[in-house]
Amino acid sequence: MTYPESRRDDVVETLHGHQIADPYRWLEDPDSADTQDWVSRQNEYTQAELAGYSERGWFQTTMSAILARPRAGVPVKKAGWYFVGRNDGTQAQDVIYVADSLDELLSRGRVLIDPNTLSEDGTDSLGSFTVSPDGKYFAYGINESGSDWTTYRLLDIATGTPVDDVVSEAKFSEATWLPDSSAYLYLHYPASGRSEGTETASLSGGRLMLHRVGTPQSEDELVLSFPGKDQYFITPEVADDDRYLIVHIFEGTDPATRLWVYPISSDGLGEPVKVVDEFVDEIAFVRMSGDLLVLRTDRDASRGRVVLSTLAGEFTDLIPEGESTLQAVRGTADGLATLTLVDAQPVLTLYALDGSGRRVVDVPGGGVVGLNAGAEYDELFIGLSTTTDPTLSYAVSTGSGDVRALPELVRGTGGSVGFTPPQVTVTRRIAPGRDVPYFLITRSDLDFEAPRPTLMWGYGGFRIPVEADYRPGWPAWLAAGGVLVITNLRGGGEYGAEWHDAGRLKNKQNVFDDFIAVAEHLRDTGVTTPEQLAIHGRSNGGLLVGAVMTQRPDLFAVALPGVGVLDMLRFHLFTVGAAWASDFGLPDDPEQFEDLLAYSPLHRVSDGTAYPATLVTTGDHDDRVVPLHSHKFIAALQHAQSDPRPVLTRVEVNTGHGFGKPAAMIAAEWADLLAFAAHHVGLVPPEQ
Questions:
Q1: Dist CA 554 CA 536 (whole Å)
Q2: Triad 177, 179, 182: Cα angle to 5°
Q3: CA 555 vs CA 96, 517, 626: distances in Å
Q4: In sequence order, what are the beta bridge partners of 125?
Q5: Residues 528-548: tens digit of each pLDDT
Q6: What is the pTM of this model?
Q7: SS3 assignment for 564-605
Q8: Annotated catalytic sites, by residue?
Q9: Buried b / exposed e along 130-145 (16+ C-beta atoms within 10 A)
Q10: Can you give the pLDDT at residue 376?
């Protein structure tokens, strides 16, 4: 194939004794005329190629029908109000409804805010919302074009009237209200960190600020900052008894936590009590129990436990470590609710506040969408999903354990059904040798008398668990007759801290070896063949796909790296990239540089190699994993590819890392990804 020209410059650096060529460094400037011209030519080329795929029409029609299904999120109760996000299937963004009772919310409720009115193209989205303790204010964050940058605004909940109060240049936080509802805290970043174009500048440190409603942002009070520690992140939370402001401090994405407690009085915030003041263990505040803090931690418990802590940091067991992996703990009026993973499958359990009275709640679903509870309420809401259904919400009585399914939430959207997902069978399997668990999902009417086209998904990082949950493309792939494989790799959070540690830093290659082991097991057991196997992952999962396709190009027919971290020698120089050092290491460190160079996808691309058919996806406003990763990688692949199979890129305009993407864009992207995969693995949709 004759690809669009990608200029190769003579850029070479000496890094820790290595001569590192970087011919496509000019693509690091996303707003330059050269880069924008390159993106335009690449997109035109990709669209021309995809236009010739007979499978594309079926996937476009099917994905449009899937995204046109009415849907609803997980209800949440705050300050006496009930809220839920809904979409009738025609809206780019979900609409937030409010009611003063659950029954009213189920019948429909009242529209509080419609994010579809925020921008003409639907790319501005609602990032988060909180409610003032007195139930008066609704504080919502707006993210523009999929960016992480957030602007906070207020509504009067009772009337829906906007309040003249704006806070901008926030990131990675929500409005955390003080008990008297007069002010909220947020994480602010200096104005110099923001760009008018596509974000690439390295992010400076965030400052925890206190904003008083009705005053200009310029008068906000600095509560906490760490000058010179740009990778520190601060997460505040007010205790359920209103006595303390709990502050979690993290270094980058490392789960190890410092925990500070600020007394709250009528005079404001007192001096912090440093309950834990070193980065060693993961610690998360849950609620108060008298004068003691209830915490979730992995201290001396790889799979997690719940403890009581004094303000001096003395821990005693409340719910000891068990066989399952503790993911979340919430306070309720009757005590505690825990969410654990049993072999990567969620289990909800209720306890009294002293840890007694354990009751498992029967709520079916393969993946967790949300768990919303409060220490003042005797009901909680849990949302679960399957590979074919986005959200199944349940109301649970924390006293009796009774469960009420809430299908009325979806009916309340007013939309019509449209797409009916196929019946599927989910099987749990383990790839031997490395003992890597994975889910094998297929349409229930299909068998494995012969190998089938298969799509394999993975992540393997940052202690994030991967479950058999919903993504919009899964029901389309399954309906077309494809096999879906969801892998549980080292580096993830399915089996606790030790499982995570086994897949990060010097152990990062374990993640790629695990993924390869599953692929080989699928081949050896006759599920699929290398000629029928497509692989997909996003973000850290995009790194996974880039790494394995360059290490074992013979094992895969198709590679779909999405918004991936692909240049492991320069990722730390852009936006929030340096925060990922807890999993990747830092290229500035000579020893860690060697580990990164060994698997960096960009630097493993070798001229004259037969690579799988590849479709790289990114967003031109991605300020988390900046698009230069994808740009440089595909330029290198196009130069190196010796196989007639295409290596292409698809750059979405006015979108970021993925959050808040309008429904039509989601449908179009998935249609292209799945059509590309189907075309090159031989999957023929049923109506063709």
A1: 16
A2: 65
A3: 45, 11, 28
A4: 143
A5: 999 999 999 999 999 999 999
A6: 0.96
A7: CCCCCCCHHHCCCHHHHHHHHCCCCCHHHHHHHHHHCHHHHC
A8: 539, 622, 657
A9: bbbbeebbbbbbbbbb
A10: 97
